[in-house]
């Protein structure tokens, strides 16, 4: 783990970012960072972070007591429930209006398919 800070610093200080990509690819902790479990938590944090930034919540003044305020859990709930509900609703509307009938799936699979994420 020694020397990683030096490589990262070199990456950010280099005139072209490509000069430090090869040494960063051989860092010992990189395989752990690319595990499926880490990717799942990364998506969870990234989705919430961009959701907060998109509505204008300043993360610089965030305190622990603010995590229980009604706004932040509402944002998380909207992202976790509202997005799949919107995808399902729009898909069902397109099917009902005969704009796009499901060809490789049945209508009974649409609720589960709306929770899928693009990778």
From TrEMBL:
One of the GO biological process terms: regulation of pH
Name this polypeptide is given: Putative Na(+)/H(+) antiporter NhaA homolog
Keywords: Membrane, Transmembrane, Transmembrane helix
Top-rank taxon, per record: Bacteria
Organism: Komagataeibacter intermedius AF2
Pfam families, A to Z: Na_H_antiport_1 (PF06965)
The keyword Transmembrane appears for this protein: yes
Key word Membrane present: yes
GO cellular component: membrane
Transmembrane regions: 43-62
């Amino acid at each position: 783990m020694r020397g990683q800070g030096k490589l990262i610093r070199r990456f950010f200080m280099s005139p072209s970012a490509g000069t430090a990509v090869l040494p960063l690819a051989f860092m010992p902790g990189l395989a752990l960072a690319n595990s499926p479990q880490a990717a799942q938590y990364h998506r969870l944090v990234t989705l919430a972070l961009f959701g907060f930034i998109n509505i204008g919540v300043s993360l610089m003044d965030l305190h622990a007591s603010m995590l229980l305020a009604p706004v932040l859990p509402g944002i998380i709930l909207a992202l976790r429930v509202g997005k799949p509900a919107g995808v399902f609703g729009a898909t069902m509307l397109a099917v009902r209006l005969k704009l796009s009938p499901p060809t490789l799936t049945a209508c009974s699979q649409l609720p589960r398919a709306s929770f899928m994420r693009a990778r």
